[in-house]
Design goal:
- The complex is a heterodimer of chains A (107) and B (117).
- Chain A has 107 residues and is mostly beta strands.
- Chain A has strands at 4-7, 10-13, 19-25, 33-38, 45-49, 53-54, 62-67, 70-75, 85-90, 97-98, 102-106.
- Chain A contains no helices and 11 strands.
- In chain A, the strands form 2 sheets. In chain A, strands 2, 4, 5, 6, 9, 10 and 11 form a 7-stranded mixed β-sheet that branches.
- In chain A, strand 4 (33-38) and strand 5 form a beta hairpin.
- The termini of chain A are far apart.
- Chain B has no helices and 11 strands.
- Chain B starts with a strand and ends with a strand.
- Chain B is globular and about 40 Å long.
- With 117 residues, chain B is mainly β.
- Helix content of chain B is 0%, strand content 54%.
- Classes of the chains: A mainly beta (107), B mainly beta (117).
- Chains A and B meet through strand 4, strand 5 and strand 10 of A and strand 5 and strand 10 of B.
Chain lengths: 107, 117
């Protein structure tokens, strides 16, 4: 199974900050990476796929990059509604696996 | 609008069984692979099982293989998860998720399964 490791596990930031979350796969996944946002008590929501492609309707302040085993999610200017938990997930092989999550909190 | 509505969760004793359902609407259900993904309280996400559009291909996580059975009824636009021999570690919110390619493109609101004596 491919292990996905996110860092940091938690992050405190302020509205307007630029933040970056990192996801590392235990082997190369050829950009087969998605990012999800989850708010408390809600289902996850797809933000990006293919490492850098924005899902329809997702604000352009979200972006993704990376290749091979290392990927990043960047939020260019945090908005109040962005405080949530973020998960990366590989779909290169079965079982599809998730990172452990990054909780983004208000400073 | 894609809608996925799970039901069937509840409290069950260890060793017991439960059947989850997911009612789909707003898209051509028979054209999409479907999944179950779970989340233990306060924990991360874990893929549980997948089924292809025509039920030809079925996959399970090792943690549920031999105990859980995924199925679908395309005529009823419904996805199911039969869970047997339940354990405390199966306690979680269970989400039904539609595949777009092999990405979890749309999710239901989840149903809570609690395994406890």
């Amino acid at each position: 199974d491919i292990q996905m490791t996110q860092s940091p596990s938690s992050l405190s930031a302020s509205v307007g900050d630029r933040v970056t979350i990192t996801c590392r796969a235990s082997q190369g996944i050829s950009n087969s990476l998605a990012w999800y946002q989850q708010k408390p008590g809600k289902a996850p929501k797809l933000l990006l796929y293919a490492a850098s492609r924005l899902e329809s309707g997702v604000p352009s302040r979200f972006s993704g990059s990376g290749s091979g085993t290392d990927y990043t999610l960047t939020i260019s200017s945090l908005q109040p509604e962005d405080f949530a938990t973020y998960y990366c997930q590989q779909y290169y092989s079965t079982p599809r696996t998730f990172g452990q999550g990054t909780k983004l909190e208000i400073k | 609008e894609v809608q996925l509505v799970e039901s069937g969760g509840g409290l069950v004793k260890p060793g017991g069984s439960l059947r989850l359902s997911c009612a789909a609407s707003g898209f051509t259900f028979s054209s999409y692979s479907m999944n179950w993904v779970r989340q233990a309280p306060g924990k991360g996400l874990e893929w549980v099982s997948s089924i292809s559009s025509s039920s030809s291909y079925i996959y399970y996580a090792d943690s549920v293989k031999g105990r859980f059975t995924i199925s679908r009824d395309n005529a009823k636009n419904s996805l199911y998860l039969q869970m047997n021999s339940l354990r405390a570690e199966d306690t979680a919110v269970y989400y039904c998720a539609r595949d777009v390619g092999t990405i979890f493109g749309s999710w239901g609101q989840g149903t809570l399964v609690t395994v406890s004596s």
